[in-house]
């Protein structure tokens, strides 16, 4: 496993998440769907934990696709994981929690983009 590619993938999803949940894209809608602004936590803790989870996801994806995946196969695997596993699992939880379909689209869409981006990173440099 190439540690540098794993770190690049984790950093890329962390950066995309920052943009995804910013007011530029879906941040305002996400706050609205959550019933207002989310409680404030210490930024170092929030961002540190978020990056750690991105890193865990990137390591698991690296194990899943192997050391030298073909580009198309890596992106396809990213789509399957992001949409078929993560977003679908969120959908189950969101139904029981009675969260909105729009919130599911925002959160599930981010993870679909995250894992497809992992596929791009691993497919190009793996």
From TrEMBL:
InterPro entries: DUF1761. The keyword Transmembrane helix applies. It holds the Pfam family DUF1761. It comes from the Bacteria. This is DUF1761 domain-containing protein. Keywords: Membrane, Transmembrane, Transmembrane helix. The keyword Lipid metabolism does not apply. The chain crosses the membrane at residues 6-26, 46-65, 71-92, 104-125.
């Amino acid at each position: 496993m190439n540690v540098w590619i794993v770190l690049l993938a984790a950093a890329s999803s962390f950066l995309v998440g920052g943009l995804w949940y910013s007011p530029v894209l879906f941040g305002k809608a996400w706050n609205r769907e959550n019933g207002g602004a989310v409680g404030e936590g210490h930024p170092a803790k929030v961002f540190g934990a978020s990056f750690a989870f991105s890193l865990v996801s990137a390591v698991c994806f690296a194990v899943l696709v192997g050391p030298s995946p073909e580009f198309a196969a890596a992106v396809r695997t990213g789509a399957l994981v992001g949409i078929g596993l993560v977003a679908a699992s969120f959908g189950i939880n969101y139904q029981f929690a009675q969260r909105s379909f729009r919130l599911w689209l925002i959160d599930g869409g981010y993870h679909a983009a995250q894992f497809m981006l992992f596929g791009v990173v691993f497919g190009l440099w793996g």
